[in-house]
Design a protein that fits this description.
seven-stranded parallel β-sheet; about 50% helix; Rossmann fold; 8 helices; globular; single chain
Length: about 250
């Protein structure tokens, strides 16, 4: 097998489906050994088996990114099993959309915990191995919602927070050969956007059609579009790209 990531080990949180699964497949197809952690054991097992059947080297473990000990255990096992941890993609996410006057404490805290605390836990656990080897690529999955989006005060705040975290990690870890960057997807066809369509009471087809009308390239995004952006940041050749946020949305975002 040849590819950009031959000899590298990656961890993708929430990598069992959607954007995460596409990232795993691309990294693995280009030579990486990939660890996946997820809270959904059934979906995780299916993904792991399918990827192994394609000939990829895959580690899977049920773990909740919000629980620091679970993350630390998974990271340790991946690094010891594969010999390194070179690439971390913080993709795990949830939505609990609602207008601010309807949003519950739980809606707010769940989103903050998964996106911010989960990413913090994963980065803190992984950076030890990266610092030791003087090499690493950290990619955090943000969103165009970081710029503000109706009904997503929790999600928007969390994703904006991720961008601030990304830039700080770039400053702190750069001298160790570790870069930190963020990919901010626009409208991508995933289970999460299907959930949003149900929330607003329209069919997914109608939801996609309405979204495409606002996208300059006149099509919706696919998980592979985000995987390609992640791969750019994860590439060893991208060592001078650090602390950046790349909006992958089919058009400019301000």
């Amino acid at each position: 097998m040849t590819g950009r990531f031959l000899g590298k080990t990656a961890l993708v949180t929430g990598g069992s489906r959607g954007i995460g699964r596409a990232i795993v497949e691309l990294l693995a197809s280009e030579g990486a050994k990939v660890g996946i952690i997820d809270i959904n054991e059934e979906v995780l097992n299916v993904a792991g088996n399918e990827l192994r059947d394609q000939g990829y080297t895959i580690y899977t473990k049920v773990a909740n990114v919000v629980e620091a000990e679970e993350v630390e255990t998974a990271v340790k096992e991946i690094a010891e099993t594969f010999g390194s941890l070179d690439i971390l993609v913080n993709n795990a996410g949830v939505i609990r959309d609602n207008l601010i006057f309807k949003m519950t404490d739980s809606d707010w805290q769940t989103v903050m915990d998964v996106h911010l605390k989960g990413t913090f836990n994963s980065v803190r656990a992984a950076q030890k191995y990266m610092v030791e080897r003087k090499y690493g690529r950290i990619i955090n999955i943000s969103s165009t919602s970081a710029l503000g989006n109706r009904g997503q005060s929790n999600y928007a705040a969390a994703k904006a927070g991720l961008q601030g975290l990304t830039k700080t990690l770039a400053i702190e870890l750069g001298k160790y050969g570790i870069t930190a960057n963020s990919v901010a997807p626009g409208f991508i066809e995933t289970e999460m956007t299907q959930e949003t369509a149900r929330r607003v009471g329209v069919s997914f087809e109608q939801f996609v059609e309405g979204s495409v009308k606002k996208i300059p390239v006149a099509r919706s995004g696919k998980p592979s579009d985000i995987a390609n952006a992640v791969a750019f940041f994860a590439d060893e050749a991208s060592s001078f790209v650090n602390g950046q946020v790349l909006y992958v949305a089919g058009g400019p975002k301000n």
